[in-house]
Amino acid sequence: MNLATHPVFVSLTPVFLLIGAGYLAGRLSWIRESAVRDLSNLVFLLLIPALLFRTMSAVHVEALDLRPLMAYFPAALAVLAITIAWRGFNRASVVMAMGSVFSNLVMIGITLVELAYGKQALVTLLTVVSVHALTLLTVGSVVLELVVAREARAGGEASPHILQTAWSAFKGALIHPIPLPILSGLAFAQTGWSLPMVVDKPLQLLGSAFGPISLVLVGVTLARTPLQGHWRDALWICAVKNLVMPLAVGLLAWTLGITGLPLTVLVVAAAMPMGANVFLFAQRYNVAQGLTTAAMGLSTGLALFSVSLVMLLMGWLNPL
């Protein structure tokens, strides 16, 4: 098969060209630091909700396959637990472990999966996305608060109750511009109504703008990501995130009898580079901020090769 027409090449090239364009714009300061936050707000508060709501507004609950959730999250939590145990029960260890399992399913994953596998694949991906942050951010928050509580007890200080922490994390992850429009769109679909054209068309246009703007924004962020002094630990995080994570998800999904397009989407989703939300943990708990930023940038850069490899292997092992 001609490389220029190979499905993996055809779907990956636009994604990484747009990231490269954003990187160039960032290096040349065409998009200033002060504008990045505004662009991020535009993507997360307007474009993503429009895309997610419109996509899920035509999906009926009885058509959803929830088995992918039973494959993705137990595998992710197992990798999380093993990496924490490997590095030790401390703040830096938990943040690094979160970086090893938290995928960039939205900014990169949605566009890539749709380009590579079509609209039907988005239903499987968005099923995972709907509870991705809710599950992993809640677990990460609780584990980090347990670490903080242990440190507080060791220093003779009082610490908040673990149930209070869990509830706060759950609410923060649920009332969020990603799971909320997915659940709202799914609820709308169950009414049997269709979106009026005057509503559907603006949502379609906003959703179409999401892909290119979000990928350019990823590139701009990479242009401002320092890697000095963090190569060794960042490479370990990237190895687990980009390679071990998709292997773990793929093996569990195969064990559960998941095949075909859902299996491929799950493995490719797990192979996505590290998501930016991990930096929020590093920032909040004042630990490993430089390492987290470096690992995120390196994971995204290496994804050009690792995601290509995963997609090629899945095309060979699990032909659609």
Automatic annotation (TrEMBL):
Major location category of this protein: membrane
Record-annotated membrane-spanning stretches: 6-26, 38-57, 69-86, 93-117, 123-148, 169-191, 203-222, 234-254, 260-282, 294-317
Compartments in which it is found: Membrane
Topology of this chain in the membrane: Multi-pass membrane protein
Keyword Plastid among UniProt keywords: no
Keyword Acyltransferase: no
UniProt keyword annotations, A-Z: Cell membrane, Membrane, Transmembrane, Transmembrane helix, Transport
This protein's name: Permease
Organism: Hydrogenophaga electricum
Organism placement in taxonomy: Bacteria, Pseudomonadati, Pseudomonadota, Betaproteobacteria, Burkholderiales
